[in-house]
């Protein structure tokens, strides 16, 4: 599936402008700087050309990408961006919340967590929302190349433990490095199974 052509087709600032949910959808969420753009680039090898804005934390729209008419990949704005004005921050966090809790066709949310930092308050908040709305989500540990393997394993265990009682969390979590490419193929395989064919 990830060999298919990627095409940007919609950007939404309000839920009324979400495109109709015609394809199975996979969304990518996480704090700003978690490595989301790098991961999307590694997964699709085409992200650079598809992206509309390259300024981290300033992408305040939810961006929808069509992958060969088999999958819709959705780039959610990163949260926890320090420089944004409070009211701006709130409006797009509300949009993310609305998206993950109400979106039809949403098959999975990949919740990206930086291996070094682990899960923070905002991440837990999103987890609770997805639990309540029964949205399936999968933790993806990013930047594993920056930690010793023993620390990556420890982080993974810690997060899996904390999500053990959660019903919508898909286990095991995935571990990736966009820098070395580690884990990218496995993640592609897992996500490809969600596609229409
Ligand atoms: P985003 O804000 O979540 O889209 O994050 P970016 O993809 O822009 O990455 C933020 C920073 O982390 C950039 O400086 C990247 O080069 C770096 N980065 C992203 N992924 C990795 C990775 O797997 N390994 C390393 N070492 N650095 C990474």
TrEMBL record:
Residues 22-197 form the EngB-type G domain. Signal peptide: none annotated. It comes from the Eukaryota. Coiled coil: none annotated. Belongs to the TRAFAC class TrmE-Era-EngA-EngB-Septin-like GTPase superfamily. EngB GTPase family. This is EngB-type G domain-containing protein.
């Amino acid at each position: 599936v990830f060999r298919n052509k990627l095409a940007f087709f919609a950007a939404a600032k309000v839920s009324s402008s979400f495109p109709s949910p015609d394809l199975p959808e996979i969304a990518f969420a996480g704090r700003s700087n978690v490595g989301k753009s790098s991961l999307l680039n590694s997964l699709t090898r085409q992200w650079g050309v598809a992206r509309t804005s390259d300024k981290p934390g300033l992408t305040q729209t939810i961006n929808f990408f069509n992958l060969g008419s088999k999958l819709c990949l959705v780039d959610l704005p990163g949260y926890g961006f320090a420089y944004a004005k409070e009211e701006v921050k709130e409006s797009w966090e509300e949009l993310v919340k609305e998206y993950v809790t109400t979106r039809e066709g949403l098959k999975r949310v990949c919740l990206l967590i930086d291996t070094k930092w682990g899960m923070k308050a905002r991440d837990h908040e999103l987890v609770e929302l997805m639990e309540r709305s029964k949205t399936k989500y999968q933790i993806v540990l990013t930047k594993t190349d920056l930690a010793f393997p023993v620390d990556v394993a420890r982080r993974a265990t810690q997060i899996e433990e904390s999500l053990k009682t959660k019903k919508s969390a898909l286990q095991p979590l995935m571990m990736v490095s966009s820098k070395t490419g580690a884990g990218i193929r496995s993640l592609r395989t897992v996500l490809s199974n969600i596609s229409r064919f």
